């Protein structure tokens, strides 16, 4: 069963994960967010209970 031979595929998987972890991921994380969070004071909204017409 040649598909169970991990010899070439394990090296390819390991190389691709290392390239992603060491090269691509830091470049992607260095971008600033397009929607920066604002430091707003959270206000509690006043909710009114729903009046059901059949009660």
From TrEMBL:
Task: List the lineage, top down.
Answer: Eukaryota, Metazoa, Chordata, Craniata, Vertebrata
A cellular component term from Gene Ontology for this protein is: proton-transporting ATP synthase complex
Q: Name one GO biological process term.
A: proton motive force-driven ATP synthesis
Any idea what this protein is called?
Answer: ATP synthase complex subunit 8
Top-rank taxon of the source lineage equals: Eukaryota
Would the keyword Mitochondrion be found if you checked this record's keyword annotation? yes
Q: Where in the cell is it found?
A: Mitochondrion membrane
Its source organism is Sterna paradisaea
One Pfam match, given by its short name, reads: ATP-synt_8
